């Protein structure tokens, strides 16, 4: 196998974007085989790499196939590798890898369920979550009480939060009538912390349930239960990589034995109301 640019190898390991890795290399924070690295360095397979004095594992550095899975995250699980309080994390249920590791594309907070993308390619994970690509994030949200047109208009035109202006791109009602709790499908293109909840709360609206149902072109596969995993096909992975201008074709189609595979719905397919009814 030929050598690769150092920043590319570090980004693929999930340590940050290529530009972030370039800045760290320039700052003298990376060592290769015991010497300080320079921007433009290339590394051979098996090189010993340290970032900020800590070794980067060989498994994380291995190129492998570019794999992407959908995980149906239940509420109560954290999107983190370990928790000092011993709470459950999403990584406990994921299919094991012989080389590399699963990297989450963004996060879902502990009280939010639904679609979580994970990949073995750190650069792909960084780009899919980066705000510059403006990938859609759709949620099914259950709120308490009735909404008037003025509130809906403010939420789509923009409100001021602690960290700046924000708005939903669209708000689609999913049920009718005068029930105490109503479901909506909302869309935004930002991944700020708790943004969906904070937008509703800015209008004094109480969110009683929140579930992500779409990320970019990928919708929650029909019938995928909480805690289950679905593997994307090579073609679907290439499409995701193309959306964020990521070159190369390292898309593996291997599905982990015992884990469900089906065709995910893409944008414009089944509505979030289907998810509500299944639950």
TrEMBL record:
UniProt xrefs under CDD domains: PseudoU_synth_RluB, S4
Keywords from the UniProt entry: Isomerase, RNA-binding
UniProt region (Disordered), positions on chain: 249-279
All copies of domain RNA-binding S4, residue ranges: 4-62
Entries under Pfam families matching the protein: PseudoU_synth_2, S4
Enzyme class: isomerase
Primary role: Responsible for synthesis of pseudouridine from uracil-2605 in 23S ribosomal RNA.
Family: Belongs to the pseudouridine synthase RsuA family.
Protein name as it appears in the record: Pseudouridine synthase
Lineage: Bacteria, Pseudomonadati, Pseudomonadota, Gammaproteobacteria, Chromatiales
């Amino acid at each position: 196998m030929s050598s690769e640019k150092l920043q590319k190898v570090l980004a693929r390991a999930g340590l940050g974007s290529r530009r972030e890795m370039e800045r760290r290399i320039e700052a003298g924070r990376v060592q290769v085989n015991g010497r300080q690295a320079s921007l433009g360095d290339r590394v051979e397979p098996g090189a010993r790499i340290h970032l900020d004095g800590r070794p980067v594992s060989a498994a994380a550095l291995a190129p492998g196939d570019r794999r992407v899975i959908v995980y149906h995250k239940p509420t109560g699980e954290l999107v983190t590798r370990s928790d000092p309080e011993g709470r459950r994390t999403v990584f406990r249920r994921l299919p094991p890898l012989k080389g590399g590791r699963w990297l989450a594309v963004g996060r879902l907070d502990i009280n939010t369920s639904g679609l979580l993308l994970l990949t073995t390619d750190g650069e792909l994970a960084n780009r899919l979550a980066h705000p510059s690509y403006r990938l859609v994030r759709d949620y099914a949200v259950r709120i308490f009480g009735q909404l008037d047109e003025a509130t809906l208009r403010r939420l789509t035109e923009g409100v001021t939060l602690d960290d700046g202006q924000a708005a939903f791109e669209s708000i689609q009602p999913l049920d009718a009538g005068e029930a105490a709790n109503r479901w909506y499908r909302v869309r935004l293109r930002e991944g700020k912390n708790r943004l969906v909840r904070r937008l509703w709360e800015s209008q004094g609206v109480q969110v009683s349930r929140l579930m992500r149902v779409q990320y970019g072109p990928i919708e929650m596969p029909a019938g995928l239960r909480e805690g289950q995993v679905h593997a994307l096909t090579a073609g679907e992975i290439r499409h995701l990589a193309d959306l964020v201008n990521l070159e190369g074709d390292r898309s593996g189609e291997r599905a982990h034995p015992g884990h469900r595979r089906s065709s995910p719905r893409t944008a414009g397919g089944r509505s979030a109301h289907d998810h509500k009814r299944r639950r």
